[in-house]
Design a protein that fits this description.
elongated, single chain, 9% strand, binds phosphoenolpyruvate, 378 residues, binds manganese (II) ion
């Protein structure tokens, strides 16, 4: 496929379960992955950063030993997450080939520095996942701290960003930030974690493909023998068979041509624009969801769709925002009108839809009188 990144085989594949759940589970998965030829590094979490207490938090030290067995029995190098200096220390003593900094560690420069101090000069690969929030500088800064400590090799993983606007994926891919990261640190191979971005098994392959098309250096994918029974991230893990099918299908993507996409300034800017357009549409969809909710409220409370005061206020606020953002007032007015007309159209549809048999004849005749407002209404 491609000539490869000077820092690792390309594409570079990291795969394995979200969590190490039992010795059998890791050994069984690792054997399958080793035989597939699509795994350069076996991953499994032993200390799991969980959002809520009381959920599975990993088997800790016991699982560290299971992973050592994976290494000696399959020959695959092994990796797990270190969330603080003490864990990094344990992993170095246990001769782990790689450790990764998770999204909840990269956000904290103190923790990153403490880990950097422990791994300074060590013969270990360190993988820096992006912080959970969409802060490119924080991600670059964390990578620089690790680079300064100079472990044997440094890689990064794009695992998506927390966003309350994201509707399709679990974490917003923000491809524009991944591209900017590659431009800022071209010497660091950037892998994509399609599992955490997608959050759903069915969406993992499309995210993986897109990442490789953008010229990313490889993938970190969650693979579990029985994903539905997984103790963490059950929805997003692939079976070994699904994983092999996915990466085999991705392989024909030429790394060389993908690389030239991100090498060209014009292409890079276009890719960033595509990513922002996706976000604009996602935001619009979210706005229209709220419009629908207001439509139902108006219908239930016999409030008319068109509220002139509210419309005046809306235009005034948007014009003020346009000025502050240095956008042409006419341009903003056109957009606001288009959004407003679509909102009225959707609310009218809600009014016309019979959700339950109408018993009140007054409401029925009122509904018949509601007609869509002419477009461009202001
Ligand atoms: C993981 O890889 O299992 C993990 C916890 O990742 P992140 O830190 O990206 O959430
Ligand atoms: Mn996970």
């Amino acid at each position: 496929m491609s000539e490869g990144h000077p820092n690792c085989a390309s594409p570079y594949f990291v795969a394995g379960p979200c969590s190490a759940e039992s010795e059998n589970q890791v050994l069984h998965t690792a054997r399958q992955l080793a035989n597939s030829g699509f795994c350069h590094l076996f991953r499994a979490g032993v200390w799991k950063p969980r959002t809520r207490p009381g959920t599975f938090e990993g088997h800790g030290l016991k699982a560290v030993h299971w992973l050592r067995r994976v290494k000696s029995e399959t020959g695959l190098p092994v990796a797990t997450e270190a969330a603080h200096a003490e864990q990094a220390h344990i992993l170095l003593n246990q001769e782990f080939d790689a450790i990764w900094l998770g999204a909840r560690t990269t956000v904290n420069p103190f923790l990153v520095q403490e880990i950097a101090d422990v791994i300074a000069g060590a013969p270990v690969t360190v993988i820096v996942k992006n912080p959970i929030n969409a802060d490119l500088k924080l991600w670059i800064g964390a990578t620089e701290r690790i680079l300064k400590a100079a472990p044997a090799r440094v890689l990064a993983v794009h695992r998506g960003f927390q966003s309350y606007d994201e509707r399709l994926y679990r974490y917003s891919p923000r491809w524009d930030l991944a591209i900017q990261y590659m431009s800022a640190l071209p010497e660091i191979p950037l892998l994509c974690d399609p599992s955490h971005i997608a959050g759903r098994r069915s969406l993992v392959p499309e995210v993986a493909r897109k990442a490789l098309e953008l010229g990313m250096a490889g993938l970190m994918t969650e693979v579990h023998p029985h994903p539905d029974q997984a103790l963490s991230d059950a929805e997003q893990q692939l079976t070994p068979e699904e994983y092999v099918k996915m990466v085999a299908a991705c392989s024909p993507i030429s790394g060389a041509s993908a690389q030239s996409i991100t090498d060209s300034r014009l292409e890079r800017l276009r890719l960033m624009i595509d990513s922002l357009d996706d976000e604009l549409l996602t935001l619009l969809a979210r706005r229209l969801d709220l419009v629908d909710q207001i439509g139902h409220f108006k219908k239930e409370n016999n409030i008319t769709i068109y509220q002139p005061d509210r419309w005046d206020e809306l235009r005034r606020l948007r014009t003020r925002m346009a000025r502050r953002l240095d956008l042409s007032p006419q341009f903003v007015e056109n957009i606001v009108d288009a959004i407003y007309n679509e909102s009225i159209r959707r609310q009218t549809e809600i009014f016309q839809k019979e959700t339950k048999p109408l018993t009140d004849p007054r409401l029925e005749s009122a509904l018949q009188e509601i007609k869509p407002l002419p477009s461009g209404n202001s």
